[in-house]
Structure formats: C-alpha cells, structure tokens
Specification:
This protein has 220 residues and is an alpha+beta fold. The chain is built from seven helices and 13 strands. The protein has a five-stranded mixed β-sheet with strand order 5-4-3-8-9. A four-stranded antiparallel β-sheet has the order 10-11-13-12, with helices on one face. Strand 6 and strand 7 form a beta hairpin. Keywords: Antioxidant, Oxidoreductase, Peroxidase, Redox-active center.
Length: 220
Amino acid sequence: MAYHLGAKFPNFAAKASGIDGDFELYKYIENSWAILFSHPNDFTPVCTTELAELGKMHDEFLKLNCKLVGFSCNSKESHEKWIEDIKYYGKLNKWEIPIVCDESRELANKLKIMDEEEKDISGLPLTCRCLFFISPEKTIKATVLYPATTGRNAQEILRVLKSLQLTSKTPVATPVNWNEGDKCCVIPTLQDDEIPKHFKNEITKVDMPSKKKYLRFVDL
C-alpha cells in the first residue's frame, strides 16, 4: 500500500529511545500534529547534523502543537548511545525526541521508505531521509523524500508545517517562498461573493494577459 496524501498514517508500536516499553504512535501524538522523519543510519555525519538542528528547534515545533518522531532501522541501544553525540555536537542539554527502532525493517518496507542504493555494512538497505507531516486526524498532509547524500533544511520543515496548519483552517494557499506573515493566495474555488465571510482585509487582484481573475492575494 502506498501512503498518499490524505491517507491515514498507520498506527504502530515499536521500541524507541527514551521510552520504557513500546512506543505507540497514536498514543504519543494524541490530538497534535506530528512529523515522522527517518534517517539512514546512526553515527553518520549528515544525520547527526540534522538531528542536532531539530533538537535545537524542538521547542518551536512544540509551540505549534507538533510532536517530532525520529525513525531508523537501528537498535534502541544504538539510538541512545548516538544521542550523546547529537547532544554534544548540537550543544544540547537534553534530548526529548523519541527515535523509533525498526531493526526488522518491517515498518520501513510498509511505508516504502527504503533506499535500495544505500546499504549498511551487512549489505542491507537503509531508510532514506523521509518526512511525513501528520495531521491531528492522523492523515498524511505532506511527504518529502531525500537521498542519504542530501541533508534536510530544518527551517523548511518548520515553514511547511506552518503552511499546512494555516491552510487547514483558512481558504488560502501559500505562494512561492512564502513565510509566516507574508501575503497568501486566495484559493481559486472561493468565489468573490464569499470573500467577505473569510477575510477582513482587502483582496489584491492581479490582471493577467489571459483575463482570468485567478491570482488574488490577501494579508491575514
């Protein structure tokens, strides 16, 4: 099964760093947003820089009612030893993000996030750098796949979350290079006579050569 946008993200129970007993995803998320992010392997350079940065930004995600969940095919023992390196590199006093252990690769295969080109010393494939943005209703709102050689931009992860949260409750879309506080696009399906019900600020319409009135901006 492919987990496409709008699909229900599967619940699962597994071992995870910092958790006694099994970590259960839905129980951990409760009614918050969540981002599950996989990394290829513990004790590797790019992964260490990524998790250190996410550790620094953890409070920013929590303020947005979003819980972070790490994931790889390493053991719990490996995760917990590696976390000490992450804390050292990132100058972190604490680490509060659970990192799920999927040594059997069962869940990674189910989610289709294995990278057949990247293998561990035993020749087994590793997980790619995947992101699943999960809504409070447990549906997938966005996914991103990166290869092992390309580290993710933590600020972009935060920006996407803010866009998803905004557009989930307001009839807008966020345009190119949007950041919080910038103008948004009014969604094309919203008719002009419906605009006053949703926006108090004036709408800016762009006159296009096609004469179609689809490009409408608004300050929120």
